[in-house]
């Protein structure tokens, strides 16, 4: 008996205690080459601290499919550690009481002072931090292949909508696809952001698509917006339907197409293909929207977890995302700009530097608006109703006038 007890004591003393490795499970839609490269920066950072990364990618730009996956996980009582969410979606989940409170960490690290108010409006719910902003993207950009433009006789960046159309027509006449586009509702809505801004300016944008003022919506300006969407429609190729956005970026990268109207995540694809801004490609604000920025910010919403060990890893992830060095290294790869105002632009290329300067300028001048297409203007229910009208119009199922009327009723429901 004595022998047995000693034996047990000895084996207990020499066995390694079973400490489970800390881990995070992250649900996101960053599956394109550029997106995955950017996410890898965060993954590597955490792994260096011994935190294992369990990846939950749900393909589909703009995140529609991802939102269905989140719903399934949360309703079954088993949420992931962190979920990539946009704007109003964060608020919707916060309202349901399923998000963790990050306020103690936020206070300790002084997030209130460095995160722009336009982002905090979504990161916080009833005064408490529930999500960490990883970037600021903006949607009113155009990406251009320099070689294609030169061969088409386009000599300088267009400054107005009409100049842009004239340039795109030149590209088309030269035998290229003028505008590379992927026919998915969120991509059409992304173009719509720019067309609304260039046609009506920020006041109209806010009145019609943020405040949902029926007069502003049911107006000659909205009619012009849809007429211009029809002009864009004539400049995309016949195979646009269903195409992924990064495939469309690839068409500009490879010299099949001249332009893509897309948020600055497109730059991530150009960089991933080793293309250099100012040499191989150009970035410029959608013509007529210079000085205005329609933004969206990817945030990692942190869900309430029962296991304290998982919560510790979750707080590590939140702190990592907010670190200034991470905000620089991640956004350099992603195409976006930092979600903190105190991150230097030194590591960024020309497009990134312009993005940082434009954001600060728009913030100062009150010309910064939330993207309609990417969930920062209105909640998902209205956003999706808008998507439906914009897409049916783009596909020729309803005419310009009918589209205006349907936008008015979409906003009312
Ligand atoms: C946006 C998101 C970007 C980019 C894009 C395409 O909604 O904010 O980070 O990933 O979708 O997937």
Key terms:
single chain; 413 residues; alpha/beta; 4-stranded mixed β-sheet; 19 helices; 53% helix; binds beta-D-galactopyranose
How would you characterize the overall build of this protein?
The protein is an alpha/beta fold and 413 residues long. The protein has 19 helices and 14 strands. The strands form four sheets. Strands 2-1-3-13-6 form a five-stranded mixed sheet, with helices on both faces. Strands 9-10-8-11 form a four-stranded mixed sheet. Helix 2 (33-48) links the parallel strand 1 and strand 2. The longest helix is centred in the middle third of the chain and has 25 residues, at 185-209. It is globular, with a radius of gyration of 23 Å. The chain binds beta-D-galactopyranose. The site of beta-D-galactopyranose has 13 residues, from loops.
Strand content: 5-15%
Q: What value does the average pLDDT take?
A: 95
Distance, first to last CA: 78 Å
Q: What are the bound molecules?
A: beta-D-galactopyranose
Rg on CA atoms, Å: 23 Å
Estimated helix fraction: 40-55%
What is the overall shape?
A: globular
Name the poorly predicted regions: 6-13
Q: In which order are the strands of the major sheet placed? A: 2-1-3-13-6
| Strands, count | 14
Largest sheet: 5 strands, mixed
Number of helices: 19
- Structural class call reads alpha/beta
Describe the secondary-structure layout.
Blueprint: H1 2-14, E1 23-28, H2 33-48, E2 52-57, H3 64-75, E3 82-86, H4 87-95, H5 103-109, H6 111-114, H7 117-123, E4 124-125, E5 128-129, E6 131-133, E7 137-138, E8 141-145, H8 146-152, H9 161-173, E9 177-179, H10 185-209, H11 214-217, H12 220-233, H13 245-253, E10 257-261, H14 266-272, E11 281-285, E12 293-296, E13 298-302, H15 308-322, H16 324-334, H17 350-365, E14 368-370, H18 380-394, H19 400-412
Parallel strand pairs: 1-2, 1-3, 9-10, 12-14
Antiparallel strand pairs: 3-13, 4-5, 6-13, 7-12, 8-10, 8-11
This protein binds beta-D-galactopyranose.
């Amino acid at each position: 008996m004595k022998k047995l007890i000693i034996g047990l004591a000895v084996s207990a003393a020499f066995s390694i205690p079973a400490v489970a490795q800390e881990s995070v499970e992250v649900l996101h839609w960053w599956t394109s080459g550029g997106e995955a490269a950017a996410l890898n920066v965060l993954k590597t950072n955490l792994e260096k601290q011994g935190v294992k990364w369990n990846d939950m990618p749900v393909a589909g730009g703009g995140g529609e499919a991802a939102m269905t996956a989140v719903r399934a996980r949360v309703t079954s009582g088993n949420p992931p550690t962190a979920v990539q969410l946009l704007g109003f979606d964060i608020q919707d989940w916060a309202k349901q009481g399923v998000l963790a409170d990050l306020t103690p960490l936020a206070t300790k690290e002084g997030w209130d002072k460095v995160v722009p108010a336009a982002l905090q409006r979504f990161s916080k719910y009833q005064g408490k931090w529930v999500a960490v902003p990883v970037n600021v993207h903006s949607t009113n950009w155009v990406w251009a292949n320099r070689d294609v433009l030169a061969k088409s006789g386009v000599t300088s960046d267009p400054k107005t909508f009409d100049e842009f159309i004239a340039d795109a027509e030149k590209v088309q006449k030269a035998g290229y696809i003028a505008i590379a586009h992927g026919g998915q509702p969120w991509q059409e809505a992304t173009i719509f952001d720019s067309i609304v801004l260039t046609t009506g300016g920020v006041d109209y944008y806010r009145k019609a698509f943020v405040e949902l003022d029926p007069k502003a919506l049911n107006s000659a300006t909205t009619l012009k917006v849809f007429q211009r969407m029809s002009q864009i429609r004539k400049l995309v190729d016949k195979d646009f339907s269903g195409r992924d956005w990064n495939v469309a970026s690839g068409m500009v990268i490879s010299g099949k197409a001249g332009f893509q109207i897309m948020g600055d995540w497109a730059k991530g694809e150009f960089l991933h293909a080793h293309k250099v801004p100012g040499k191989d490609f150009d970035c410029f604000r959608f013509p007529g929207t210079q000085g205005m920025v329609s933004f969206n910010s990817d945030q990692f919403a942190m869900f309430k977890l029962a296991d304290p060990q998982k919560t510790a890893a979750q707080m590590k992830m939140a702190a990592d995302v907010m670190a200034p060095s991470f905000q620089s290294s991640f956004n350099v790869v992603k195409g976006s700009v930092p979600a903190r105002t105190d991150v230097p632009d030194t590591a960024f290329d020309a497009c990134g530097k312009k993005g940082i300067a434009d954001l600060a300028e728009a913030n100062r001048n009150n010309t910064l608006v939330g993207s309609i297409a990417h969930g920062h203007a209105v909640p998902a229910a209205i956003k999706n109703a808008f998507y439906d009208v914009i897409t049916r119009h783009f596909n020729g199922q309803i005419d310009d006038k009918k589209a205006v009327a349907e936008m008015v009723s979409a906003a009312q429901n």
